[in-house]
Amino acid sequence: MTMRNGRRWNHNIHYHPRILRAVPDGARRALDVGCGEGMLARELRQAVPHVTAIDLDAPSIGQAREHPDDVDYILGDFLTHPLEPASFDVVASVATLHHMDAATGLARMRDLLRPGGVLAVVGLARSTMPGDLPRDLAGVAVGTLHRALKGHWQHPSPTVWPPPVTYPQMRALAAEILPGSQYRRHLLLRYSITWRKPQE
């Protein structure tokens, strides 16, 4: 675990600002799905008064609870934990969907949003060869440069590799489950989905 200038960096943290920019004005309640040791949840708390963060990994939740903040950390399964439907202004998730059935996870996130609320996801998907090779090589090169300049923080949470869903499959799921969502593929081997739930 190395850091430069006291700041953590890795491929997931690199895209935290994308999540934070998606937070709608006046948001009161946010949910961080797959929060790990809570870094994104604490960043969300700077913008949103009430933040709930959930993860299945007990050691990660233990680390999160060591921080002096008022985030509500829950040890539990996001897919089955009794969270109130349509109760969050923001649902955020970074590098979590590939740990569960992606379609089920997206639908659950959608259902937990209030009308007008925003879903912001950054995730990993599986590359397909040979078509993705040039993009992946470019991503590795840029990621190596970032590591050299910023160091690399290895998160303590469990990993799943390779991701079960490909990038085109993820784009199709987003279009089906979240009509009108914005899907983008990013250089550092990630994709993002942003969606505002229609007002009823």
From TrEMBL:
One of its GO terms (biological process) is methylation. One of its GO terms (molecular function) is S-adenosylmethionine-dependent methyltransferase activity. It comes from the Bacteria. Keywords: Methyltransferase, S-adenosyl-L-methionine, Transferase. Residues 31-120 form the Methyltransferase type domain. Signal peptide: none annotated. PANTHER family: METHYLTRANSFERASE (PTHR43464), UBIQUINONE BIOSYNTHESIS O-METHYLTRANSFERASE, MITOCHONDRIAL (PTHR43464:SF19). This is Methyltransferase type 11 domain-containing protein. It comes from Streptosporangium carneum.
